[in-house]
Design brief:
- By secondary structure, the chain is an alpha/beta fold.
- It folds into two domains: about 35 residues, no CATH class; about 110 residues, Nucleotidyltransferase, domain 5 (2-Layer Sandwich), CATH 3.30.420.
- The protein is built from seven helices and seven strands; from the N terminus they run H-H-H-E-E-E-H-H-E-H-E-E-E-H.
- Strand 4, helix 6 and strand 5 form a beta-alpha-beta unit.
- The longest helix is centred in the N-terminal third of the chain and has 18 residues.
- The protein starts with a helix and ends with a helix.
- The C terminus is likely disordered.
């Protein structure tokens, strides 16, 4: 059923299996949790941080991604320093935080402050727009040159 949910909405899978949609969503969630626990996760060396505007009520969602793999890693409500602090506190060990070499963030000051606190070895570059139309399509450009090249050269940070 988890595989069926990869290519179809939960409601459609529920109709196909003649189950309540809530049951299918619960099964799919367990499937995704097992998949996530078993998969290989590359080390986070270059991270991207941006926010998505959701509208008047929810306001913003902070998105953290691995710029080398292009994978979105975490989503958090809001765009405060505390939001990104939560990611560093709950998702990364001290060793993983020390391994972050570079971060590309938009020009939002709270993100930079959080990175400086939690990943002091990390170089921070800013850009006005890091993501394309979706958070799952991060650009690895920061100021016109590739982010990897800038991080390696230490230019402009």
């Amino acid at each position: 059923m988890g595989l069926a949910c990869e290519s179809a909405p939960a409601r459609q899978v529920a109709r196909q299996w003649r189950l309540p949609a809530s049951t299918v969503r619960a099964i799919d969630l367990r499937y995704l949790e097992r998949w996530n626990a078993a998969r290989h996760k590359p080390a986070l060396r270059q991270m991207g941080i941006d926010e998505i505007h959701l509208g008047k009520k929810q306001k913003f969602l902070t998105v953290v991604s691995n710029l080398e793999s292009g994978e979105p890693l975490w989503f958090g409500p809001g765009r405060k320093k505390e939001t990104l602090d939560e990611y560093f506190r709950t998702q990364l060990s001290a060793r993983q935080r020390r391994g972050i070499e570079a971060a590309c963030v938009d020009m939002w000051e709270p993100y930079r402050l959080s990175i400086e606190e939690w990943a002091p070895n990390c170089r921070v570059g800013t850009t006005s727009s890091m993501f394309c139309s979706t958070p799952t399509a991060p650009l690895t450009k920061c100021g016109g040159r590739s982010f990897s090249a800038r991080a390696a050269a230490g230019a402009g940070w």
